[in-house]
Amino acid sequence: MSNTPMAASPLTRAVLEIDEYVSGLGWDQPARLFALVDTARLRAEQPSLADRLGLAGSEQETAPGLTPIEQEEIPADRPLDEFLGTIAWPDAVTGCALTVERLMLPPSAEAQVPQGLDEAKLAQWVAEHPERQEVRMTVAVLRDGARESALRLREKDSPTEVLTGSDLVPGLAQALAATFEE
After folding, report:
1. pLDDT tens, 12-51?
2. DSSP output for 35-75
3. Is there a smaller number of Cβ atoms within 10 Å at the N or the C end of the chain?
4. 3-state class of 82 per DSSP?
């Protein structure tokens, strides 16, 4: 993608590419799941698919890279953790990524959380909190354990305002890594 900043690793580039793609769809989107495949292997084993994805004849054919391939829609009527527990990837998939929007509160609001709320009431409390922030999280993991994340706040919706790091969303990264365990 043209606006994706250069990043040090193929995994970081893939996360930023997914973030840019989903950003172009706007906010209030459902969660999206992506398989990450080795670009060189995809070109060699599936040249027609590589061509349809615009990967054939790329000037960076020898550079290591990962190609995100969006999967079918995630069922909206099913909890995300439960859905992730049903996934098994074929060997050709090097990694996976998920993008999801959530509300978050600053650490200073933790002391204000009322005790004893069930999940639905807690979600409502967070949604009504004056310091809430809407955030889009893109988290990716590889079979070898590598992890990367990108976070974008709705109020700072710009490619230059995307925070990246390997441990930004550890719980989600762990859930994605579990999709590769047998």
Report:
1. 999 999 999 999 999 999 999 999 998 888 788 877 777 7
2. EEEEHHHHHHH-HHHHHHTT-TT-TTTTS--EEEEE-SPPP
3. C
4. helix
Question: What is the tens place of the pLDDT at every residue in 135-145?
Answer: 999 999 999 99
Q: Is 30 helix (H, G, I), strand (E, B) or coil?
A: coil
The pair of structure tokens assigned to 149 is: 């994340």
Q: What Å distances lie between residue 6 and 3, 10, 148, 162, CA to CA? A: 9, 10, 15, 13
Q: Which of 87, 89, 81, 97 is nearest to 148 (CA)?
A: 97
CA 138 – CA 146 distance, rounded (Å)? 14
Q: Where are the domains of the chain?
A: 10-180
What is the Cα–Cα distance from 113 to 56, expressed in whole angstroms? 52
Residues in the chain: 182
Asked whether the predicted pLDDT for residue 126 surpasses 60, the reply is yes
Give the pair of three-digit tokens for residue 87: 């996934």
